[in-house]
Amino acid sequence: MGLSRREFLELLGCTTSAVVLPRFLGLGQIPEPIKVALAEQQKYNNIPVIWLQGQSCAGCSVSTINTVHPDIASVLTETISLQFHPNVMGGTGDLAVGMLEHAIEHLSGEFVLVVEGSIPTAEAGAYCKTGEKDGKAVTTEEWVKRLGSAAKAVLAVGSCAAFGGIPAARPDVTGAKPVSEIVPGATIVNIPGCPSHPDWLIGTVAHVLLFGLPELDEHKRPTMFFGKLVHEQCERRADFENGIAAEDFGEKGCLFNLGCKGVETYCDVCIRGWNNNVNWCIRSGSPCIGCTQPEFPDFAGQGIYAKLPVEKTHGIKWTGPYAPKAAVKG
Ligand code: SF4
Ligand code: SF4
User: What integer is the mean pLDDT of 122-128?
Assistant: First the structure.
């Protein structure tokens, strides 16, 4: 009985085995079913993707795997050729790390590098290493420099890769840096979020494939996802305007008094939602913590739940009964 491309990859647990092994070994050395899978991928001209992890919790990987439209099996079989991913690839050891050298030597200018997590630079990058070369561990900083310089485009996924994020929060003992500071000359798209939304990454990859790079804002974020303030689209905006404030988490009313960062944060989950639009941050009773902003999570030492100064409200005056004093004066 023959297997379809999808059935074959599902048989492998949707890992990258079917992609990594044949490309590394060469067609002559591989079993017939894997040749079939590779031939299918080549037929569809899937774009090669290398996914590196620096200082991350792998949350952006988990979020991406939860993509619904299209589902992850369709992405892996019909859109991209995922050649390296620390969590889901089937290859290990020299075989897996060899894919990184293979991309640099044979796929220069053709592959997309996705980086999840910030890159530690203190102690010569010793806080994060990926694989070995000649018996010595290789820093992730070195891989990002080499792969980033050879890639067609670099997608910094999640706020840690895009802006430093949680590893770069004070006191930042590891010298955590965003990808843009490691390979400043590369073509970089930042797709922040803690985690990033699966639609943001899949949508950006699709845009790169179909139309080239998307329009970016001053922080290199695609404006199609990060073009509007949360506050502009928030379903509790009327409460803000009327001074109806939640005084505790989970209460009805605007969450400004609980530190909502929606007034200075650009993100579209207010209309997109999480988990196939089941819910989103503010609807669930939590303030927006500004996870897509470069200031996240420190916010100049204030942290994610400190109330923003009134001048951060873009000229909107808070005049209701629970208004902060400064806002009433303003
Ligand atoms: S401050 Fe926050 S909760 Fe209030 S309207 Fe703006 S985004 Fe919504
Ligand atoms: S609404 Fe705020 S906390 Fe929620 S994903 Fe967007 S930026 Fe992050």
Answer: 97
Global pTM value? 0.85
Segment 270-295, tens digit of pLDDT: 999 999 999 999 999 999 999 999 99
C-alpha to C-alpha distance for 24 and 92, rounded to whole angstroms: 12
Cβ(281) – ligand 2 distance below 6 Å: yes
Q: Which runs of consecutive H residues, i.e. helices, occur in the chain?
A: 5-11, 17-25, 32-43, 59-65, 72-74, 93-106, 140-150, 159-163, 179-182, 198-211, 223-226, 230-233, 237-241, 269-272, 325-329
Counting residues of the chain whose pLDDT is more than 70, the rounded percentage is 80
Q: Is 234 in the pocket of ligand 2 (CB under 6 A)?
A: no
Report percent pLDDT > 90 for the chain: 60
168 close to 161: Cβ distance less than 8 angstroms = no
What is the distance in A from the centroid of ligand 1 to the CA of 289? 11
CATH architecture of 228-325: Irregular (4.10)
Whether the CB of 308 sits within 6 Å of ligand 1: no
For ligand 2, atom 8, the nearest C-alpha belongs to 291
Q: Which CATH fold would you assign to the domain 5-224? A: Rossmann fold (3.40.50)
Pick from 199, 256, 289, 305 the residue to mutate for probing ligand 2's pocket: most ligand atoms within 8 Å of its CB. Answer: 289
Q: How far apart are CA 210 and CA 50, in angstroms?
A: 19
- C-beta of residue 82 within 8 angstroms of C-beta of residue 12: no
Would you mind telling me the total number of residues written for the chain in this entry? 330
Residues 12 and 22 sit within 8 Å (Cβ to Cβ):
no
pLDDT tens-digit profile of 42-87? 566 688 999 999 999 999 999 999 898 888 888 888 888 899 999 9
Q: Return the domain boundaries, the chain.
A: 5-224, 228-325
